[in-house]
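Hey, quick one: can you model this chain's 3D structure?
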Amino acid sequence: MGFRIIKTAAATLLSILLAAAAGIPNAQSAGLLAILGVETTRKRSLRTITARFSASLVGLLIGCILFYVLGFHYWVLGLYVLFGFPMIVKSGFKEGIVTSSVIVFRVFGQAELSVHVLLQQIELLAIGLGSAGLVNLIYMPETGGVISGIRKEVDGYFSVIFKQMATTLRDPSYLWDGKELIGANEAVQRGLTAASREMENHVIHPDEAWNVYFYMRKEQLESIQNMMQLLSQVYRQLPHGDMVAELFDQLSGDVLAEEYTGRTERLLEGVEQEFQQMELPDTREEFEVRSAILQVCRELALYLKIAKRHKVPVEVKPVKRLSSFKGNW
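Sure thing. Here's the predicted structure for all 329 residues.
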């Protein structure tokens, strides 16, 4: 916000100086137009300037018609607002209502309809909005470092979440407040906002990598929430839970890697094979708990599928078998 104020000041001063040098009366109006044209990103600035310039032309046309037919009276300005604003909105230039009003009110102040006056207003628009666009295009603060920091924050939250899930599987009586899940969701939302702003700052060939990453994490958060609901049904400690807990231990480290290692996926395949070789549960209680653990594995597979789809895969050395396994796989 502080840097935007600096840009606005620079654009305002530049536009006033240019308008004064061009001999335009009330050159400070160019500064007002420049203030309205400064935006937070390059793409948004181009869209805003285009909309404001187009809206001003539409408003100027409507205003000139009203002034020509009805004259320069204060109540005519009321008619301009009454009829002009809806027409500007219908034209798709809602953002330019204020800018168009500045131009129309300037014509009213001069109480003259001539080619010179109209060209003067267009020149004022070009100087005011052009100064804002120039300042926006020259420099925008880099946000790559900020986004990278948010990514590390999100990955850190995910790592802690998986460690907590592993602890819950080993000890179903363990109580976890889940604050990391709230923190992860807030960090992902901040990341999406920052990534969108970063894309809009690149007019040509924008990099969508950050957007892809944070959307991936958003999808995975939904999967994690489903796993947590299933874990709430695991009210008894079983060897199956210990085996899956080791998966989450592995995942708590893998989630910090920028690439998709595939380690947890291979371990999960081994766990599922081991489950198939085990005897069926003897009691209803064991059946319910084992069923919930199996569903956790299914949801974990979905989580890994999302990561595999978005992360760059790398070749890794074969991982060691889980300590709970009874043989090679």
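One thing worth noting: The radius of gyration is 31 Å.
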